[in-house]
Design brief:
Layout lengths: L15 H4 L1 H8 L2 H11 L21 E2 L7 E2 L11 E4 L6 H8 L10 E3 L5 E3 L6 E2 L5 H6 E6 L11 H18 L8 E3 L17 H15 L1
Parallel strand pairs: 1-5, 3-7, 3-8, 4-7
Antiparallel strand pairs: 2-6, 4-5
Helix pairs in contact: 2-3, 6-7
Amino acid sequence: MGATEGSKDTDRRIGRRALLIGGTAAAVGSAVLARDELARLWWRAPGVEKPRVEGAVDFRGAQWVAASDANWRRADRPDDYGIDMVIIHVTQGSFASAVKVFQDPGHRAAAHYVVRKDGHITQMIRELDVAYHAGNRSYNERSVGIEHEGFVDRPEDFTDEMYAASARLTARICARYDIPVDREHIIGHVEVPGTDHTDPGEHWDWDRYMKLVRQARSASA
């Protein structure tokens, strides 16, 4: 599975940083800092939730299937955490098994999207929220994770339909957050520091994929 089970990125409560905002701001003489930080963090306090539209998707045509809320944490990206990266995963299993495990609270991991071999896209976590998919807290906070149905040692799993649909999705994400379309900002799970995963593997055609993303990005510009 591309997403990392047992992610340490599990703290969804208001933390010490938020409690110290006022003191920190006073120390640096910046009331603006305190105001901006509190504006981003007020809704994380116990009993306060940011309004959400049930079933809303960020990519037109995607199907919404909610991941367990144990596998992600609420955020207000890109206002609280800037998004500057897309991370490519491979499920190491079927589409159905990936969706099922991301709905399991015991898995403690999930990606924002799952792309099926036929190009169908399911969104399981909103882009504004932090998914536990990379096995690295900082990378989780700054990225959108996309799973792809299949196995890393079976190049036949990476179909034309999958490449095309995923490229359109990545291009739209890059346009939305002004992410450069290059290999520094569109990376594989294997490239995340500290990970023990190998996906998307040697059979993922990066040259082909990046060409498709650039074409889709230009077409939508």
